[in-house]
Amino acid sequence: MKRQSYSQLIGMSWRWMIQILFKPFSLKKCIMLAIIIILAGQMTGCFNFNISGNKADFEKLIDMLHKGVISDAKTALFTNPKVMVLFTAVVIPILLFIGLIILLWMWVGANFSFVFIDSVMRNDASLRIPFHRNKLQGNSYFKWNIVFSSVALLTFGGIILHLITRLVKVGTFAAEPPINTAQILSMVLRYIPILLATGIFFFLIAGLAVDFVLPIMYKRKINILKAWEIFLALAKRNISEILLYILVKIGLSILALIAAVILTIIGIIGFLLIGGLSYLFGWFIYNITPNVAKTYVLLFLILAGIPALGFLGLLFSLLFLPIPIFFRIFSIYVLGSMDDSSDLFAAKTPEEIAAEGDEKYKKSMKLVWFTVLVPILVALLGVLLAVAIPNIMKARREGGLRGIEKILPLKKIEAITGVSKKALAPHGKTVTVYLKNGNSFEAEIESETENNISFRIADGTFILPRSDILRMEKE
Known about the structure:
Shape: elongated
Oligomer: single chain
Strand content: 5-15%
Strand order of the largest sheet: 4-3-2-1-5
Structural class: alpha+beta
Largest sheet: 5 strands, antiparallel
Number of helices: 16
Number of domains: 2
Helix content: 55-70%
Low-confidence stretches: 46-53, 68-74, 399-427
Mean pLDDT: 78
Number of strands: 5
Order of helices and strands: HHHHHHHHHHHHHHHHEEEEE
Radius of gyration: 31 Å
């Protein structure tokens, strides 16, 4: 590709983006592209940093430290043997599980970054073959990401540790120091430019890797270190072009951010309309359901509603598809304009076409789907438990737990709700109940709560408030 002006490159990127999305339009293709971009972690090209707070908040924090609130909390936590056993048995495995999921998501994101490139280059939205075709490059990028992220975290950690060390020296964490809050705040503010500069540096490195190094890896089928060597040599010859690209991308990102805000407003309105109608429908179904079945209906509505909301969110993300696709194409065109040998749009040689052989790449993606689905299933289970347990407790208080025994044995109900097995089981005693209105009847006491008593008769069960009962006599 001969060197092009940025107006030409922008126009070419825009036309190819339109070609991918709308000529012809396919909802299935757009959904698949959205999934690819989400898994690649590149749904938007705009990033936002927000630092909030004021001097009053800072002074409150310093005051807490002076009074030993944080120190006391730490002492109470780590000197209690029961808490430490619980921490070891529960919290550490959970943290290890979360760490494993984060690593797997990084692996999926690294590999799907190449699936995304493959999609825009081929005007396709396949998953399995592009994933395995570029797996060596994806794994190389994943390993680099681990090292890069570790260096970034250690760098930020070192800066923050140096700040904390200086704060300790001036007595910030002492129990009762005669400390000047303004002095501490001034010290902290001096570190903010350092943290921002460090963040911008790492942000640029990560951005250049995605924009230029990954396409070089994709084109030449090489690992990331060799791709960085090629890019750095290219950047040395085109340093002004790289700087101009960064400025142009910042300007385009601002325009994209404005467009994203407008699309977000439109999407939220649509989301609220559809979500509101769905909520009203579920609320109507729940309210016409008999009390004894409300818990089951609520669980069913949640099981049906969460996937529906997830799909609705996926459709909502389609509004933003043009933004990441345009920026992905734009960086590829800029790379090809600077270096003909790195032009991904150049015609492939017969050898390159023959080497692609799709049949050998038709392999399983079980680990990918495990990584994607496990957090979703864990979150779904958490929501179900958060809803089910209070409703089961409420049903127990209202005397309506008998029906649940058909699904769960009493021991499991006791474990979930904390209600004793004895309280759930029928009392097995027949009594004569005298009501304050002068009526009486014979029934078996099924269960009792502080305010209500559930009775069983031949025709079924019913609940009476204790305030309506005059007295009960055993037979």
